[in-house]
Amino acid sequence: xxxxxxxxxxxxxxxxxxxxPLQDKFxxxxxxxxxxxxxxxxxxxxxxVIGVHGAWGTGKTTVLRFIRNxxxxxxxxxxxxxxxxxxxxxxxxxxxxxxxxxxxxxxxxPLVRWDEKVGKFATMIGSIIGWFMGEGYGKIIQLIGLTxxxxxxxxxxxxxxxxxxxxxxxxxxxxxxxxxxxxxxIQAVFRLVKLTADFPYTTYILAFDExxxxxxxxxxxxxxxxxxxxxxFLEKIVQVPIYLPQIDESDLDSYIESxxxxxxxxxxxxxxxxxxxxxxNYYRKSLKRRLKTxxxxxxxxxxxxxxxxxxxxxxxxxxxxLLQGLRVFYPKVYDFVQSHRxxxxxxxxxxxxxxIAQDVQPTILGIRIREKLKDDEFKLTxxxxxxxxxLLIFLFPxxxxxxxxxxxxxxxxxxxxxxxxxHWNRYFSYGLVSNELSETQLTNFIEDIEKxxxxxxxxxxxxxxxxxxxxxxxxxxQGKAGELQEATAxxxxxxxxxxxxxxEETNKTPQASYFSQAPSLxxxxxxxxxxxxxxxxxxxxxxxxxxxxxxFSYECYLQMRxxxxxxxQELFSDEAEKKxxxxxxxxxxxxxxxxxxxxxxxxxLLKLLSIWARFSGRDETNEYLTNIVRKEPKIALHISKLAxxxxxxxxxxxxxxxxDAYKLITSFIxxxxxxxxxxxxxxxxxxxxxxxxxxxxxxKIATHxxxxxxxxxxxK
Length: 716
What we know:
Blueprint: H1 29-40, E1 48-53, H2 60-74, E2 79-83, H3 92-107, H4 116-119, H5 122-126, H6 137-148, H7 151-167, E3 170-175, H8 183-195, E4 202-208, H9 210-220, H10 229-237, E5 240-243, H11 249-266, H12 273-287, H13 294-311, H14 317-329, H15 331-338, H16 341-345, H17 353-357, H18 364-372, H19 382-395, H20 406-414, H21 424-429, H22 439-448, H23 454-467, H24 470-480, H25 486-496, H26 518-526, H27 535-546, H28 550-560, H29 562-565, H30 574-593, H31 605-616, H32 618-631, H33 634-643, H34 659-666, H35 671-680, H36 698-714
């Protein structure tokens, strides 16, 4: 379960327009004042329609509010303002009634003073004011709809015109968000404006995205002679098009960066100066190219406000912030990353192995992603493409060919990076899945190790592994190993050794079981123990003697050998490694002597026998194994079958027994003994072994191919 709760609930940034000039971050106040003062100083009675043009999120509504506030505070003796919201009306009849009702209320002119035919409905019509959603409204519209379409519309218009001329009252009608209406509603609004455009002393201020509205109007008044008919129609209605000034890039940068700092403060997250610089470096280089409006800045801030409190203790904060930036500014790239986990984590390299083996490019996946992001679907400019690639390489170091770099993998785990396979899911799910091990759980476990008994630690490990899985537990713990104190590392290593079966996993076949990263974790823990006074050696000795099962002891020994993995840090000297090998050989001997070899189907059994022979002497293993093979010849066949995967280029569908497999067997027993055992089993067609035939019978394959290799070697 996820433990971190939102407390306190974050204060999200609203998308409402600003009313307060003190919050004018983009210098729109002076611009709006100039428009307001120009309108107020207009002396003639001619109607005028002003269009305030700008894309979504650029601040059109804020400008309209600043204009209205200026008119209402500085010019209230001359100007009457009317806000008309077309969103309230879902058809043209309602729009027309709503508009006339707004005018009627503002000018205190009775809407219903028409002929007697309509008079009997006056009470009902009067109730329309403020009532547009109630039950029975449909009937009222049906009854009065005919009268509003012709004579009565003209009568009311004439009364409004007469009133305005008599009083010389100047009204300013604001209609905002026109570009957010559906097509039919946009067309209806402009028919309304055209219908009432002869009101004297009237100014319309319409706010919309010119391109969106022009396209909609063109659909209604499409001309085959002029593809720009929508713009032409707008020119006939809007006498004064005003375009919002371009927001200064530095102002927008300051705005979003201040919002990001506010978000970190709200969520009580303190990034180090280095991490803060790291985030802003990649933000400025890769993300800010898509920052065009204050609305997008608020969207990014709100996205962070949601994600950070939920995930702050479970992820790398810089990675999370950059990934959320990718989500807001480059949504198609984000979707591509989210849906291609294996690609970005380098988990499935099978399709690229041949190319890597041919040494085509060590960064083959990075190259493929570079090409993929050039597709039209992502709509990236060349500069955006290169910037996003830089960001992705930072987030996913595997793209630069570090697929098999264990040190990088461990560092990614330690830092809770998105490129860690143990942390990927939470970045894209806003939390933990039901059986995912949290950083809090792991931290609490580590802190409790010193005060818990061996049995209590064992039970806790088994509980955590059962909750998630052995691979995840070990992988995350390995990322923390470098931070452990000596005593904690020693205690943990000695507890893990006897419970190796907890971490045992299998792939497609049980014969290929392995222990996840647990042996590698043992190595990391040993590295925390000093070499002096044989302290590290003594702990390693106990681990090899007590590790369960024997194969876990074997893999721990492999990790202890410096040369095996070409590690920079040597755990033991060559002499100490030999002593540890001797300890493991004694353990293996005991295992073989107390176990039925026919019941052990692990392909690493032959490796165990080879280790025993190396450190205890081949004579010892040959003597013991010769005796049991002669008593039970099936053991010879069992050994031959287990050797098949060690053949050069062997596959599951085409097993091969060659000189490499033969050498492995003869490292611990005489080949003649195996041959005698196989022959005694009376396998068919031994006189003419056909090792290249597509046999389905593994016993036949193992016998024929071993005898073929044995015959070739002994007859040379």
